[in-house]
Design a protein that fits this description.
Keywords: Oxidoreductase. Residues 2-119 form the Gfo/Idh/MocA-like oxidoreductase N-terminal domain. By secondary structure, the protein is an alpha/beta fold. It has ten helices and 13 strands. It binds nicotinamide-adenine-dinucleotide. Nicotinamide-adenine-dinucleotide (NAD) is lined by residues 6-11, 31-34, 37, 70-73, 75, 93-94, 120, 122, 158-159, 170, 268.
């Protein structure tokens, strides 16, 4: 199959490396209004793709079966929708979309057209985090009190410097993917504030997000783009869970890359392999992004809460099983 990568910024290297290692997908086109970014990516990996600034232009230059959507989050819905409307499969970076109606629209469109729609969920699928989830499931009984801190430093902030609510828009969905693995009761209400801390760096901000659940469980997440590497957490965050008679903590060391490497391929590579497996499966093409709608419902409520400055009820995710 032939892919067009749309968006050639920081995260594109990770995808190119994984797709080249997989061998089942050829990178036929690189699409970015920033032509230099696309050329630099091609040079770095010795690719010879078609270069384009739009999907239409790319399709006029090269055959395309699948779009890899690596644009900033507020472009995800439009770019994925355009691709699906043109009969192309979509693998997209997170978040699937910024609100539940847009995400549902994409899932329905993919299903109606028999196309793959898959979204990156590398933090929720991290093997270390899944082991922690298993510890919680085996030892604890809900309701739970869960806290998570994810403080991230970036070598290049990219779109985040100009993004309204960058932490909630870009980072929070990882924590939502993760907490949904720990607390299975329906979430009811989200309160979110995000405050820019531009005195540290233009993209720097801190978000505080509290989620209430129907079984009484409570999740509080502190996410931020900070500057000093000494203070950062692992990108998976630092997690604490308490229940009656049970306590567990997961705090991976961000400096211990060796240990992570020993655990096998990184979670993002496993996710990309699973997406490519799904593309090549013999029977009906699945829409794995449907399983991510719960995270988008939380993101939708969090963004509304940050804008309106009040708690917001989490929208109900309709049953989208085929
Ligand atoms: N899963 C993860 O762990 C992870 C980590 C980092 C980033 N991401 C996600 O990857 C995406 C991109 O992040 P990044 O760090 O590479 O950002 P970036 O700012 O470095 O790159 C974005 C690129 O998209 C291009 N672009 C903007 N609008 C476009 C359009 N309409 N069509 C084509 N190209 C367009 C920009 O010119 C830029 O080159 C975001 O959704 C982000 O959330 C995921």
């Amino acid at each position: 199959m032939k892919a067009a990568l749309i968006g050639c910024g920081a995260i594109a290297s990770r995808w190119v490396r994984s797709l080249l290692a997989d061998h089942r997908i050829e990178i036929a086109a690189l699409v970015d209004p920033d032509k230099q970014a696309a050329r630099a990516l091609a040079d770095r990996y010795e690719l010879s793709p078609a270069f384009a600034t739009t999907l239409d232009e790319a399709r006029a230059l090269a055959p395309v079966d699948v779009v890899v959507n690596l644009t900033p989050p507020d472009h995800h819905y439009r770019v994925s929708r355009e691709a699906l409307s043109q009969g192309l499969h979509v693998l997209t970076e997170k978040p699937l979309a910024l609100n539940l109606p847009d995400a549902l629209d994409l899932v329905h469109l993919a299903r109606d057209r028999g196309l793959l729609l898959a979204v990156m969920q590398n933090r929720g699928a991290d093997p270390g985090f899944l082991a922690f989830r298993d510890t919680v499931r085996l030892g604890g009984r809900p309701p739970f009190v869960v806290t998570a801190d994810t403080l991230v430093t970036l070598s290049g902030p990219g779109f985040r410097s100009g993004q309204h609510l960058p932490v909630t828009t870009d980072l929070a969905v990882h924590a939502f993917d993760q907490v949904r693995a720990l607390i299975t009761a329906p979430p009811t209400e989200v309160t979110c504030t995000e405050t820019p801390t531009g005195f540290l760096a233009p993209h720097s901000a801190l978000a505080a997000i509290t989620v209430r659940f129907a079984d009484g469980s409570l999740f509080t997440h502190r996410g931020g783009y900070i500057v000093d590497p000494f203070l950062r957490t692992d990108a998976n965050g630092t997690w604490c869970v308490e229940a009656r008679g049970f306590a567990a903590r997961w705090a991976p060391d961000p400096a211990n890359r060796q240990k992570a490497a020993e655990a096998g391929p990184p979670a993002y590579q496993r996710c990309i392999t699973a997406m490519v497996d799904a593309l090549h499966q013999a029977d009906a093409i699945p829409v794995p992004a449907a399983d991510n709608l719960g995270s988008i419902a939380l993101l939708d409520a969090a963004l509304q809460s940050a804008v309106r400055r009040r708690p917001i009820a989490v929208p109900e995710v309709p049953d989208v099983r085929p």
